[in-house]
Design a protein that fits this description.
Helix content: 40-55%
Mean pLDDT: 96
Number of helices: 7
Radius of gyration: 14 Å
Largest sheet: 5 strands, mixed
Oligomer: single chain
Low-confidence stretches: none
Strand content: 15-25%
Strand order of the largest sheet: 2-1-3-4-5
Shape: globular
């Protein structure tokens, strides 16, 4: 398994252990992880703290993002895709898009290369979470 996806999965598992939503993300620059985060909407009572946003906040100011790569266990939503486009991140690896299709086309339309890794571990983790927490999941994706 890709070590950066594995780091994102570890972030997702950390979020789940905190009774949150199991989505994790890492930002990679020059082959090194410079930021990591996980969905903290539940933990922080903050609807904006998606995994990718938490990751970017934790990375801090890194200068140009054009040579950075974002990994997420789930295809980024429009909120997170907007941050990707805004900061000029040119490549995103998504662990999966089966449980949530996200904003792949939006990112691609703005020049972002998006690779869906179709990770069975990511798919299984989200399917289990969604089955056990449908109300929380629907709140997270704005379907309530």
């Amino acid at each position: 398994m890709d070590k950066f996806l594995e780091a994102a999965i570890n972030e997702a598992k950390l979020g789940l252990s905190e009774n949150g939503i199991p989505i994790g993300s890492v930002l990679v620059k020059n082959g090194e992880i410079v930021g990591r985060g996980h969905n903290k909407r539940v933990q922080d009572n903050d609807p904006m703290t998606h995994a990718e946003i938490d990751c970017l906040r934790n990375a801090g100011r890194v200068g140009s993002y054009k040579d950075s790569v974002l990994y997420s266990t789930l295809m980024p939503c429009y909120l997170c895709a907007g941050a990707v486009v805004q900061f000029g991140i040119k490549k995103v690896y998504a662990g999966e898009s089966e449980t949530f299709s996200g904003a792949k086309e939006f990112m691609e339309a703005h020049g972002v290369e998006v690779i869906d890794l179709k990770s069975q571990e990511c798919i299984d983790m989200m399917n289990k979470f969604i089955a056990e927490n449908p109300k929380l999941w629907n709140e997270d994706i704005g379907e309530l």
